[in-house]
Design a protein that fits this description.
- By secondary structure, the protein is α+β, with helices and mostly antiparallel strands.
- It has helices at residues 10-17, 42-45, 56-65, 75-89, 116-131, 143-155, 168-176, 188-196, 202-206, 210-228, 259-279, 318-332, 369-382; strands spanning 2-7, 27-30, 37-40, 69-71, 96-100, 103-107, 135-140, 162-164, 246-256, 282-293, 304-315, 339-351.
- The chain is globular and about 65 Å long.
């Protein structure tokens, strides 16, 4: 049996953990630069007059009128709370697939002689006790069924956020009560095609001839059909595959005309993606730099450009990657524009053990593994970017994302610990 454990309204729940006064109150989380609503708890979703993904400045009066509390996105906090949830799950099974920041598949093979409904409630209650995060738990024989079971667990109040598919009757009940579009892996195009054939529920799909499914939806559709019919086809993936590309492209908090400020932002982002590159023990063969103005502005002149630079030898060195990135940035930068975003993408990634050098490789001693290792150790011990390249500068506040409503990073920053009664 496999469990799918999914955190309820994860971003908003993380904020409520440290704000008990907001329990059962509407809470939303905003996108980068406090642009629009990207997450909401069930109380906020119940307010139908509050539209998701709307620019906040357009609905701020409505939010205040409805007593909605809004937070800037606090990814440092969310990532750490996610890690705590995953660590709790690993106490129930050595095999956990971290599918996303707020959901995981858990192999329950070691619990074969237990009552799965009791186990599901134990998992749910233990996570809440350890982290304060409410979760839903769906348990079934296959990953696809457990995903649907989790959805159904949250959909029906009497399920108490738990649903276990441990009989044929419960499997059919589950599939009968969910739509085709609810099935994990069926996109909008296939959902419309199936609905045209009067296939409206997940059970209708599971009862279709497998030959038709394979012909019209390829082997991927057939695999899904088999999963819904209790035939396991998808394995638990404990170690995710290495990414083929790593990048970031964040908007500035303010429109920038100064090349030096854009250069600082670009250097900062290179350091971020280079750190992720080393974490998966890869090296980049190419680096792509993009620069653009605000495409939604009605008053600014528009310009966007990018450049891809091929490296002589794949590298994971922040120093080397920054040098090449700034060389590319200088080529695409044009004065006279107000820029909104710079992007950094590392491409053509290879395993660090498979780097092929050439006869003319002139790697500078500043790019050595020893220096990189020392920098990573110091930053890991004392905090992100405590040791950085000079090109990152110290004017972060002049270009960084706007986060006027960001909560403290309660679990990772000593100076932002929750204060109770004047004592940390």
């Amino acid at each position: 049996m496999i469990a799918l454990v999914d955190c309820n309204s994860f971003y908003a729940s993380c904020e409520q953990v440290f704000r008990p006064d907001l329990k059962k109150m509407p809470v939303v989380v905003l996108s980068n630069n406090d642009g629009c609503i990207i997450a909401a708890n069930k109380e906020a979703k119940a307010l139908t007059e509050i539209p998701m993904f709307q620019p906040v400045f357009k609905i701020q009066k409505l939010l205040d009128k409805s007593n909605v509390t809004y937070f800037s996105s606090n990814y440092t906090l969310y990532n750490d709370m996610s890690r705590r949830v995953m660590d709790t799950l690993k106490t129930f099974s050595p095999r956990v697939e971290e599918y996303s920041i707020d959901e995981s598949f858990v192999d329950l093979s070691i619990h074969q002689n237990e009552c799965y409904t009791d186990l599901a409630h134990t998992i749910k209650n233990t996570i809440y006790k350890n982290t304060g995060i409410p979760v839903g738990v769906g348990i079934a024989k296959t990953k696809s069924l457990s995903k649907l079971a989790n959805k159904y667990a949250k959909k029906i109040a009497e399920n108490d956020n738990v649903y276990v598919v441990d009989s044929e009757t419960k499997r059919k009940q589950l599939l009968q009560n969910l739509k085709v579009k609810d099935i994990w892996g069926i996109g909008r195009k296939h959902a419309l095609r199936l609905e045209d054939k009067k296939i409206s529920t997940a059970l209708d799909f599971a009862n279709m001839p497998v030959a038709w499914v394979r012909k019209k939806m390829t082997v991927i559709g057939e695999r899904l059909w088999r999963e819904l019919n209790n035939i396991p086809c998808l394995e638990i993936v404990e170690k995710p595959k290495a990414k083929k590309g790593i990048g970031t492209a964040k908007s500035f908090g303010f429109k920038l005309t100064s090349y030096s400020l854009i250069e600082e932002a670009c250097s900062y982002y290179v350091a971020e993606v280079a750190d992720l590159l080393r974490q998966q023990r890869s090296a980049a063969s190419q680096i792509d730099i993009s620069l653009q103005t605000n495409q939604h502005s009605q008053i600014d002149k528009q310009y966007r450009n990018n450049i891809t630079i091929s490296l002589d030898t794949p590298t994971d060195s922040t120093i080397k990657l920054t040098k090449e990135a700034l060389r590319g940035l200088k080529q695409i930068y044009k004065p006279g524009y107000r820029y909104k975003k710079v992007g950094v993408n590392l491409l053509q990634l290879v395993n660090r053990t498979d780097i092929q050098t050439n006869l003319f490789d002139t790697r500078h001693k500043s790019e050595s593994d020893t220096i990189t290792h020392v920098l990573d150790n110091l930053n890991g011990k004392f905090g992100k970017n405590k040791i950085k390249l000079a090109t990152v500068g110290n004017r972060h506040k002049e270009w960084a994302l706007i986060k006027e409503h960001r909560s403290p990073r309660f679990t990772t920053q000593w100076d932002e610990l929750l204060t109770i009664g004047g004592t940390k």
